[in-house]
Design brief:
The complex is a heterodimer of chains A (about 375) and B (about 550). Chain A has about 375 residues and is an alpha+beta fold. Chain A is about 25% helix and about 35% strand. Chain A has two domains: about 230 residues, Rossmann fold, CATH 3.40.50.300; about 120 residues, Nucleic acid-binding proteins (OB fold (Dihydrolipoamide Acetyltransferase, E2P), Beta Barrel), CATH 2.40.50.140. In chain A, helix 4 runs parallel beside helix 5. By secondary structure, chain B is mainly α. Chain B has two domains: about 260 residues, MetI-like (MetI-like fold), CATH 1.10.3720; about 270 residues, MetI-like (MetI-like fold). In chain B, about 75% of the residues lie in helices and about 5% in strands. Chain B has 22 helices and four strands. In chain B, the strands form two sheets. In chain B, strands 1-2 form a two-stranded antiparallel ribbon. The two termini of chain B are about 35 Å apart. Classes of the chains: A alpha+beta (about 375), B mainly alpha (about 550). At the A-B interface, helix 1, strand 6 and helix 2 of A face helix 18 and helix 19 of B.
């Protein structure tokens, strides 16, 4: 049975320092939810609160409608996968996976059956009698996962489970994790600092910074309409630029970057008139090289051919360097020193208030 | 994230029980010594008379001066001898280096006074070498008794400690550091002095401290080979167990002074070492390389010579144990008489040693597991204090701990003097740190999440501990326990104070037989001790999979 998890005004303090001030969050039943943020943002703290390893200094934590604040970790029916796997080194694969079932006083025949099934699901059945030291990182990871889900937990918690694997294996494992989660359908809370990994596995993501949730949304929402400049810069690559938005009497908005202007539809500033300073977040692929003489003037500083795409660094007249990704042209390499004109894709870029805290683009959540 | 829930659980209780044990068997006895030293033994009034007596008589101050002289010289000499030894063994391929390491270890594991008595047999007035040299060359060897003899015995006995410490430190030095220095044109002696020596200085200091403390506290060596060269432990022993009626109060006063002195040395070492410590782990450790020519010969000669001299006492003692004896004198021919005599005369000592050390080890294993866990995984103020308590025996020489226990437990409410219990208590307190240390070392490697995994899978605190944590600690526990075991069966300075006819141990028996001149029986017993030590060490290597010992 899966549960929904709610944090209501949760507070975490270490001594006198507040790490998480009044945080509220709802995780839906059966969803793959990721806590994403730089190290020290409080994501692991939240995860360990769900597990029961961290005390809660204020607010309530609920599974469905049951308050869990004081429930002992062993009584929460949680499966947890640790960053270093935490496989018991003196027990073999089967004994490791069996450990939680033994504690639940599940009879031997039933136990054997369930261990067998789960080893099949995570695809490590051939290794069932091996000792952990004779397993590769990926295999240990699968044992850890099997051990966590064999107890049929209400919640599956994963604390940076892939950070110790090498790049290729990480990609394979994250697909495996996603697949297994879909198969067993357990509410899953996943912690990572790797945004690409988060995008790949999650139904929804909460981006955190300094104990505060910056943005909750699907991977697409978070990438395309980041709630603020922090999220925009943390997820993917982007160029931050100063600009001015002026709105005429008939409500049409125009974007001014230096000398260059272009129409800017789709802003949540309909009733607003006049001009205002804003920050733009323009992802490298949201720049368009202009065919005509119109556009933001710049000079190519460097050009790196990467096959499908070519990465350009362009120095604008203001002196700012911006990063651009262009599909590689069939012929004609752009050389450093060449002058170019740039436009931005008005439907894709994000416009923020001058403080960078509010997304003024339509379609962005508040 | 280290925010562990504060739980008043079984661990608070366990910590409290061990705490009480330390208070009763260590803190109270030390406190009793302090009280005794400041109150007159007969009138019971506060007085500084004992201290006054100590500082006003040249006789006593002389002993202190002797001790300091011996200790400082032994420490420096050990570093000078064993430092290069470790360097050579780590950088140059020496034939049979595995065996040599084990031999060096064995030589350091025996009781020092056995070395002292062996050197008397070799270099004493009627020693084998002395006689040989006189007959062949007509030259009288310089006198072995007194300062020179103590220096020789203790240096040979304790330099292996430096060797082990420095070898361990050199293992952690990354070879690329050496290559980096070389690429900046810093080579040879200059590189050793500028790069290597600073890196191993903290280890050298730690090893030096251990040597210092052992040399300072050693009682058997100056007693046997000193011949009137009085050091502090001898002084304390004589004052306490003098046949003309010992003076507890005065012995207590000397003990207080000694503990103050060793504490200062300990803190000083800690202060310096802390300021100079680096954390290193070598991905690419220094490998011994094959050398050619003169330097290769010189290196081999140095290593073999040291090993030969270090092993000489034990080998010679073992040899004499098979010699025929007539009364107290060795005569021509070989026999097992000495062994027969040993078993019939002092068989009880062999039994006592196994019984006392065995029981002690069981207590040590049990306690060390709990203490290591409490101090590593349940960091609390009480656990920290406990950690400090376990370090105390470092600065309290064995004979002083013996005296402290005796003056505390020879009257109501608890009378333990003369029992096996008091010896076991002393052994546990003194030798526990080895096992705690090696258990804690393993535990430090065990990530907290292992236990959290067990708990989140529904195991209770106790089940987690016994099913998961203890099995993981076991290798470290057993390795430490074997070291504790060896150091218990070879220990003399505490047992000589605490033993009675019924609780005499092998080392006490060897000592008394040597004093009485029964060299045959003493040799047989010593050889037995050596054999037990070697077997234990081999067991240690087998179980721990290591090739060396860190003390």
């Amino acid at each position: 049975m899966s549960v929904a998890i709610s944090f209501r005004n949760i507070v975490k303090k270490y001594g006198d320092t507040t790490v998480i001030p009044e945080l509220s969050l709802n995780i839906r039943e059966g969803e793959f939810f990721t806590l994403l943020g730089p190290s020290g943002c409080g994501k692991t703290t939240l995860l360990r609160m769900i597990a029961g390893f961290n005390s809660i200094e204020g607010g309530t934590l609920e599974f469905n409608d049951r308050v869990m604040n004081q429930v002992a970790p062993g009584k929460r029916n949680i499966g947890m996968v640790f960053q270093n796997y935490a496989i018991f080194p003196h027990l073999n694969v089967t004994q490791n996976v069996e450990f939680g079932l033994e504690n639940r006083k599940i009879g031997k025949p039933d136990r054997i059956q369930r261990v067998k099934e789960i080893l099949k699901v995570v695809q490590i059945e051939p290794y069932k009698d091996r000792m952990p030291k004779n397993l590769s990182g990926g295999q240990q990871q699968r044992v850890a996962l099997a051990r966590a889900i064999v107890i049929r937990p209400d919640v599956l918690l994963m604390d940076e489970p892939l950070s110790n694997l090498d790049a290729q294996l990480r990609v394979d494992m994250r697909n495996a994790i996603k697949e297994i989660q879909r198969e067993v359908g357990i509410t899953t809370v996943y912690v990572t600092h790797d945004q690409e990994e988060a995008m790949a596995v999650s139904d929804r993501i909460a981006v955190m910074k300094s104990g505060v949730i910056q943005h909750i949304g699907t991977p697409r929402e978070i990438y395309q309409r980041p709630a603020n400049l922090f999220v925009a810069t943390f997820i993917g690559r982007t160029n931050i630029m100063d600009a001015v938005i002026s709105t005429s009497e008939d409500g049409r908005a125009e974007l001014h970057i230096g000398e260059y202007s272009q129409p800017m539809p789709g802003l949540k500033m309909d009733e607003w008139r006049g001009s205002q300073d804003v920050k733009l977040s323009v992802r490298p692929e949201e720049f368009v090289l202009s065919d005509d003489a119109h556009g933001l003037a710049g000079k190519i500083v460097s050009s790196v051919f990467l096959g499908l795409n070519t990465h350009l660094i362009v120095e604008l007249e203001s002196g700012q360097h911006v990063e651009i990704i262009e599909q590689s042209a069939a012929s004609g390499v752009m050389e450093p020193g060449e002058t170019v004109r740039l436009k931005v894709n008005p439907h894709k870029i994000n416009v923020y208030d001058a403080a960078g805290e509010i997304n003024l683009t339509r379609g962005a959540s508040i | 994230m280290s925010g562990r829930m504060k739980r008043m659980d079984i661990w608070s209780f366990i910590t409290a029980v061990i705490f009480v044990g330390y208070i009763v068997f260590l803190i109270v006895p030390l406190f009793m010594i302090l009280i005794k030293s400041f109150f007159d033994g007969t009138t019971g009034e506060f007085s500084l008379a004992y201290f006054h007596k100590f500082f006003s008589k040249a006789y006593y101050m002389n002993a202190v001066w002797n001790s300091v002289k011996v200790t400082v010289c032994v420490t420096l000499l050990s570093i000078i001898v064993a430092g290069p030894l470790a360097y050579i063994m780590s950088t140059i391929r020496i034939k049979g280096s595995g065996t040599i390491r084990i031999l060096i270890l064995i030589s350091s594991m025996s009781a020092p006074f056995i070395g002292a008595y062996a050197w008397i047999l070799l270099l004493g007035r009627s020693g084998v070498i002395t006689k040989f040299v006189y007959q062949v060359l007509g030259v009288r060897m310089p006198d072995i008794y007194g300062f020179a003899g103590i220096l020789l015995v203790l240096t040979l006995q304790l330099s292996p400690l430096i060797f082990m410490y420095v070898s361990g430190a050199l293992k952690n030095v990354d070879h690329s550091l050496m290559e980096a220095a070389e690429s900046m044109n810093c080579t040879g002696i200059r590189r050793m002095w500028k790069v290597l020596v600073p890196l191993i200085t903290p280890t050298l200091l730690a090893g030096g401290l251990l040597v210092f403390m052992r040399a300072f506290a050693d009682f058997g060596t100056p007693m046997l080979i000193g011949e009137g060269y009085r050091t502090v432990p001898v002084l304390i022993f004589n004052e306490f167990i003098s046949e003309v009626g010992g003076d507890d109060g005065f012995a207590a006063a000397i003990s207080v002074i000694v503990i103050l002195f060793t504490t200062v040395i300990f803190l000083l070492q800690k202060y310096i070492a802390n300021r100079k410590s680096y954390s290193m782990s070598a991905l690419n450790p220094i490998e011994p390389k094959r050398k050619k020519g003169l330097s290769n010969i010189a290196a081999h000669a140095y290593v073999y010579l040291f090993t030969a001299i270090a092993m000489m006492p034990q080998v010679y003692v073992a040899y004499t144990s098979f010699q025929k004896t007539s009364g107290k004198i060795f005569v021509k021919g070989y026999s097992l008489d000495s062994y027969r005599a040993a078993f019939s005369k002092v068989g009880d000592a062999i039994y006592n040693t196994f019984f006392l050390a065995g029981l002690t080890i069981l207590i040590i294993i049990f306690t060390a597991i709990l203490i290591a866990y409490a101090t590593v995984k349940r960091k609390s103020a009480a656990a920290n204090l406990l950690d400090t308590f376990t370090m105390l025996p470092y600065i309290v020489p064995g004979s002083i701990l013996g005296i402290a226990l005796l003056v505390t437990f020879n009257k109501q409410p608890i009378i333990l003097s003369g029992t096996a219990a008091i010896l076991i208590a002393a052994f546990v307190i003194r030798r526990l740190p080895y096992t705690i240390r090696s258990s804690a070392a393993v535990l430090h490697q065990v990530n907290d999440s292992i236990e959290e995994a067990a708990i989140s899978l529904g195991a209770s605190t106790m089940k987690t501990f016994f099913r998961i944590t203890v099995p993981m600690m076991l290798s470290g526990v057993i390795a430490g326990a074997i070291l504790s075991w060896i150091s218990i069966i070879t220990e003399l300075s505490t047992s000589i104070i605490l033993y009675t006819g019924k609780t005499r141990t092998m080392t006490v028996a060897v000592y008394t037989e040597v004093v009485r001149g029964n060299y045959g029986v003493a040799a047989a017993l010593s050889t037995l001790l050596t054999v037990i030590t070697v077997i234990s060490l081999l067991l240690f290597f087998k179980l721990s999979g290591k090739k060396e010992v860190t003390m």
